[in-house]
Design brief:
Number of strands: 20
Order of helices and strands: HEHHEEEEEEEEEEHEEEEEEEEE
Helix content: 10-25%
Oligomer: single chain
Mean pLDDT: 96
């Protein structure tokens, strides 16, 4: 690993123009090009491409094309999870998606951060990143945006079009811009 990738993974400022990072993103894009060009009946090819692209993907999980990400290798998806059309996962830091997760169309999970107060650093293209964690049995409605550094607890539902800027606890329904908890959700009793 190069110095800039190490800095990226530690959440420090780094330059995304680093040759090693550019090469990793291009390799990812080549696999995404293949994945996004698959036909409707090519489920096994899609899954094979995802196992080569992602850090890991659990049994029974799938992603609908068109799918976009930066590196792929920093994304882990549990079992029986689903990402609908046009998912964008900016994985400059790890993105962890649990088991039994449903993510609606055009959702965005974003880890990239840019300096807000240091205008010169932003002009020079410095950035950092913070991980995103989606717990088990979470449902993100269509068009949800999850911002860098956010965790969403198990069993939570996020309403369509929400912008999630802060952590959301388990077993709640939350929605809005910015997203806020609207009510608790019942939790099923054991078998």
């Amino acid at each position: 690993m190069g110095e800039q990738r190490d800095r990226m993974l530690r959440g420090e400022l780094y330059r995304d123009s680093d040759a090693d990072l550019v090469a990793e993103r291009k390799a990812c894009q080549r696999l995404l090009d293949q994945f996004n060009a698959t036909g409707a009946d090519e489920d096994s090819l899609r899954f094979d491409l995802l196992t080569r692209l992602l850090g890991s993907i659990g049994e029974g999980s799938w992603i609908m094309p068109r799918f976009q990400c930066d590196y792929g290798s920093l994304i882990t998806i549990g079992s029986n999870s689903f990402l609908n059309y046009d998912a964008i996962l900016i994985d400059c830091a790890p993105i962890t998606i649990g088991n039994d997760v449903s993510i609606g169309p055009r959702a965005q999970l974003l880890t990239a951060l840019h300096p807000m107060e240091d205008h010169e650093a932003r002009r020079q293209r410095w950035e950092s990143a913070a991980p995103v964690v989606i717990g088990d049995n979470v449902w993100l409605g269509g068009g949800v945006i999850v911002c860098p550094g956010v965790s969403i607890g198990d069993g939570t539902v996020i309403g369509a079009g929400s912008v999630v800027t802060k952590d959301v606890p388990p077993r709640v329904f939350a929605a809005g811009n910015p997203c806020r908890v609207l009510r608790e959700l019942p939790w099923p009793k054991g078998p």
